[in-house]
């Protein structure tokens, strides 16, 4: 911790600058990073986020020089990934009277990560406020930016947003405020967005809705620069880079349906892709001409195949189309399988096998987790029986993901 860096007269920076080549999300952060944590020295002293676990001991020792840890009333955890919650185990031992403030999903994660099963938690929901004695904290849920439990905290009186990973930069700077930066930080800001936020950019609209009525004078994120100037510029970068307009892109959806359930999924996918201005061709493999289907596939950016399952297999003529794919050069296209089923849904897996035999980029849950850390999107798309409200949401979530990976 650097000596008494203050954001206001009673809000302290208590983070850590990490100027190594930092391994992170299968990247090497060659400019390093910082783990920004904040101490609000109010009547009910409050810590917002902590630092990476390897600096946990140092963090707690440094904070103990600034305040009596037993007087800390709240520890706000905006995001549970260990680069921000990593000091929780050590801090909670010393700050024995502190209540942990976090989203509902975060509770169990923190309990399991840091053995905090016996701690007091305060679960906050979107729009909740907390009086910390002289200041008011407002909490907004920002799910999947970039994990399910993420939320942001706004200090009403000081008009400071503490958004954790959001609006961050990966730069190991000791000049923590943007106005002290020796060069323009926009490229670092955009680079961070591309590395961490872009795969989740369809959730940025929730963030924009959450902050649209806030008067933000300062953004104090948990990596890199604290933003004090051109706040709207940085917010607009997120807003603009998250718009998904697929005008000029094409998709082909080919299905074979038994009782119209798989057809309903195909139609829902079509509608969702068209909402992003994509041109979508929909084919019933049992009725439409195979040459027309293959021609459309070859000119598409996204190709999706769906079949109902009957007696453990696909139905109708869709296999005739799938057999043709292996011989074609379909490199660069995104492919996926879907279908409704009643018991095991073998047809969906068989389609997936056919797709894996091509040179297309086939969507599957394992790769999505590896590449983005997202666990909420599942491919292939499997719908038990007919679409209902819940399964429709899952399909829409999957299509939203497709939109983010179309180049
Ligand atoms: Fe900076 Fe998602 O951790």
Automatic annotation (TrEMBL):
Check the record and name the Gene3D superfamilies matching this protein: 3.40.50.360, Ribonuclease Z/Hydroxyacylglutathione hydrolase-like
Please state every residue range assigned to the domain named Flavodoxin-like: 251-406
Quote the Pfam families the UniProt record gives.
Flavodoxin_1 (PF00258), ODP (PF19583)
**Which SMART domains does the record cross-reference, listed alphabetically?**
Lactamase_B (SM00849)
Recorded hits in InterPro entries, A to Z, give: Flavodoxin/NO_synth, Flavoprotein-like_sf, Metallo-B-lactamas, ODP_dom, RibonucZ/Hydroxyglut_hydro, Rubredoxin-O_OxRdtase
The entry sums up its family as follows: In the N-terminal section; belongs to the zinc metallo-hydrolase group 3 family.
Protein name according to UniProt: FprA family A-type flavoprotein
Organism this protein belongs to: Paeniclostridium hominis
């Amino acid at each position: 911790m650097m000596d008494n860096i203050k954001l206001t007269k009673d809000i302290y920076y208590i983070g850590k600058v990490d100027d190594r080549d930092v391994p992170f999300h299968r990247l090497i952060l060659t400019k390093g990073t910082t783990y920004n944590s904040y101490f609000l020295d109010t009547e009910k002293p409050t810590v917002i986020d902590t630092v990476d676990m390897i600096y946990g001991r140092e963090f707690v020792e440094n904070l103990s020089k600034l305040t009596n840890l037993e007087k800390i009333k709240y520890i706000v955890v905006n995001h549970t990934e260990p680069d921000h919650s990593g000091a929780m185990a050590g801090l909670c031992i010393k700050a024995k009277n502190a209540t942990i403030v976090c989203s509902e999903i975060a509770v169990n994660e923190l309990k399991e990560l840091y053995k905090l099963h016996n701690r007091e938690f305060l679960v906050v929901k979107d729009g909740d406020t907390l009086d910390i004695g002289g200041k008011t904290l407002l909490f907004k849920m920002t799910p999947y930016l970039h994990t399910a439990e993420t939320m942001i905290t706004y200090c009403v009186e000081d008009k400071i947003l503490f958004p954790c990973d959001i609006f961050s930069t990966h730069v190991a700077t000791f000049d923590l405020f943007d106005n002290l930066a020796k060069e323009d930080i926009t490229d670092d800001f955009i680079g961070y967005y591309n590395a961490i936020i872009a795969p989740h950019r369809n959730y940025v609209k929730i963030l924009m809705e959450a902050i649209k009525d806030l008067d933000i004078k300062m953004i104090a994120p948990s990596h890199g620069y604290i933003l004090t100037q051109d706040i709207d510029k940085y917010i607009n970068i997120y807003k603009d880079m998250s718009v998904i307009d697929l005008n000029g892109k094409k998709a082909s959806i080919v299905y074979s349906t038994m009782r119209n359930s798989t057809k309903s999924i195909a139609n829902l996918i079509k509608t969702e892709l068209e909402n992003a201005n994509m041109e979508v061709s929909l084919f019933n493999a049992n009725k439409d001409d195979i040459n027309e289907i293959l021609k459309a596939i070859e000119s598409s950016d996204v190709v999706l195949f769906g079949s109902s399952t009957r007696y453990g297999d696909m139905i109708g003529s869709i296999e005739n189309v799938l057999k043709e794919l292996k011989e074609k050069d379909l490199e660069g296209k995104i492919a996926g399988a879907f279908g409704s089923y009643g018991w095991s849904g073998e047809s969906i897996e068989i389609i997936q096998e056919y797709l894996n035999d091509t040179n297309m980029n086939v969507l599957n849950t394992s790769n999505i987790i590896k590449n983005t850390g997202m666990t909420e999107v599942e491919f292939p798309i499997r719908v038990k029986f007919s679409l209902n409200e819940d399964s429709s949401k899952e399909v829409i979530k999957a299509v939203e993901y497709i939109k983010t990976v179309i180049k």
